[in-house]
Amino acid sequence: MAGGVAVVGGGAAGLATAIFAARRGLAVTVLDGARTLGAKILVSGGGRCNVTSARVGPEDFWQGRSPFVRRVLRSFTADEAVAFFRELGVTLHEEPGGKMFPDSNSARTVLKALLDEAARLGVTLATGERVLSAAPGFVLETSKGRVLAERVVLATGGLSLPKTGSDGGGYALARALGHSLVPTTPALAPLVLDGAFHKALSGVAHDVTIAVHVDGRKQVEVPGPLLWTHFGVSGPAPLDASRFWHRARLDGREAALFVNLLPPHDFEAVERWLLEAPRPATLAKTLAQRLPASVASAVPESLGIDPAGTLGQLKRDARRSLVHALTAWPLPVRDSRGYGFAEVTSGGVPQGEIDPATMQSRIAPGLYCVGEILDVDGRIGGFNFQWAWSTAFVAARALAASA
Fold first, then answer.
1. Are residues 49 and 173 in the same domain?
2. Tens digits of per-residue pLDDT, 344-368?
3. pLDDT tens track for 155-206
4. Interhelix angle 383-401/78-87, nearest 10 degrees
5. Claim to verify: residue 94 and residue 228 sit in the same structural domain
6. How many helices (H) and strands (E) does the chain have?
7. Which domain does 47 fall in, by range?
8. Omega cis (within 30) before 238
9. Count of domains in the chain?
10. Nearest-CA neighbor of 94 among 157, 137, 57, 50?
11. What does R_g of the chain's alpha carbons equal in angstroms?
């Protein structure tokens, strides 16, 4: 290849960029070290691929107050993403929480549609060709030789799910071309807990709210389902909270997580409920009205309170200790399961070094960055895929305009 647009990375953002650019008449080559593309698409959403969300806004991203995020999302909305996939023959349906999945319930449908469209448009897919280094002027040294490109799009992803080929190589390329990096951490990763409380509850899921405290002050509250596991906790709420726990630890700050097992009720509401409940009822039976039975028994047992005892036998101090546990249960987080199980990476190329109107580098003109390589990460539910589609569209539009 000599000249044209080189897209480094053939995942969601890379394939979408190539398609949008080729639709505008540009010659595009996708370079990827993997022999088959889209491994991360295939494993996403439990193999079903949560393509986007029915409703996507800046508030769904942890950097949502940033004008950068707002501008990019406005340029290619969730509705436009749904229409784009419909054009490719992939119709989507909405599930609880606004999650949009293909009607086939198979991620392979999504990947095949992207690959078929790229092929139809004449995009060159150079698989098994890893980009090893990049120099100003866009001289790319690859595992198969030298590539000269007029413009380069970095769509290499981050460090999450390395088994799919995400090894952070794009960060080195960005640095070689003059960029700095916001330190990276796993995000949307299951949490590993100390102790044994969680082991007896393995497989139990219920709705909670997790409060993340950093240096003793509440930073954020994250609602959603929690799944108890043999190693700790997983599910949407712990995954979303993991991002804040990791970033605090990276910054050398103290992070603590507290679970409200009975959201949206606070301490006063839960205590009032227990005081008004029938006195002869057992504690376990009362709590099981709002909690899974195993959790209803495990929480009082952890405090030395007999769940088979009646509410009338519960002393004031014991009742208040129980209410505190039900509304602010401390999660003894030892670690997360790391990049190997994280769904996205937090950190990357700073927003300030990229023009949100074009996704072009302010440091190296002709270089564009899309998707997970940027310092933008959203909550679970299809939002990080939407970020891939939106940034791809903006970059392709700018590439065509400057051709």
1. yes
2. 999 999 999 999 999 999 999 999 9
3. 999 999 988 888 899 999 999 999 999 999 999 999 999 998 999 999 999 9
4. 80
5. no
6. 12, 22
7. 5-186+345-401
8. no
9. 2
10. 50
11. 24
